[in-house]
Amino acid sequence: GAVVSQHPSRVICKSGTSVKIECRSLDFQATTMFWYRQFPKQSLMLMATSNEGSKATYEQGVEKDKFLINHASLTLSTLTVASAHPEDSSFYICSARDRRGAPDTQYFGPGTRLTVL
Amino acid sequence: SQQGEEDPQALSIQEGENATMNCSYKTSINNLQWYRQNSGRGLVHLILIRSNEREKHSGRLRVTLDTSKKSSSLLITASRAADTASYFCATDGVGTALIFGKGTTLSVSS
Question: What is the pLDDT of residue B76?
C-alpha cells in the first residue's frame, strides 16, 4: 500500500529554534497534503492543507507566519515551526492524498514528536 | 475545527467482552472513517463507510452509520488486550481534509 514517511520522528530543541518537519509520499504523487497537530490525550486538529505549487490554506487560529508550509514537489511537503516555544510541543502528523487515487483516500505519516525546552 | 464527538470518552472492559463506541458529527459527509492510535504512535486506518452505506464489517469490527441522526458506531467484538488504544472517527466531504472526533480511549484488561 501507499507509504508516507515523516522526518524526523522525534525532535527536541531549545526555545527560539526553528524546526523543519518533512512529509514524503514514497510511492505515489500527492497533489494535496494535510498537516495535523495532536496535543497529549487530545484528538488530531487540522492545521493546514498544502497543495503542490501553491500557498497552503490554514485553519482558523493557526498562525501562517509561525507554521510555514512548503509543498515544493508532488512527493514532499515541509512544515517549519518558526521560533518554537514550549507551547508548540506536540505530535505533528501529515497525510497525503494520491492524485490518481480515490479522493477519499488519505495516507498518514507516522508522526513527529516535537519537544521544545 | 472538530466535527465529531465520540462517546464514551473512556471505556474499560475485560477481554472477551464487546466494546461499543459512538460518534456524532455535525455537517453532511461523504464518508466516515474509524482510526486506531496506540499511545504515542501514528494512526491505523480501520474501516471506511460511505454516506450511502448503513453497515460494514471487517473481521471483529462492525460499523454502522445513520446519516439521519448524523451518528456512527464502532463495535469491537471479543475484545483483546491488544485492542487497547484510542479510537477516532473522522469525516470528510469530497476531496477535503479529514476532521477528527475527540476520540474514545479503550482499555481492555486480561
Answer: 98
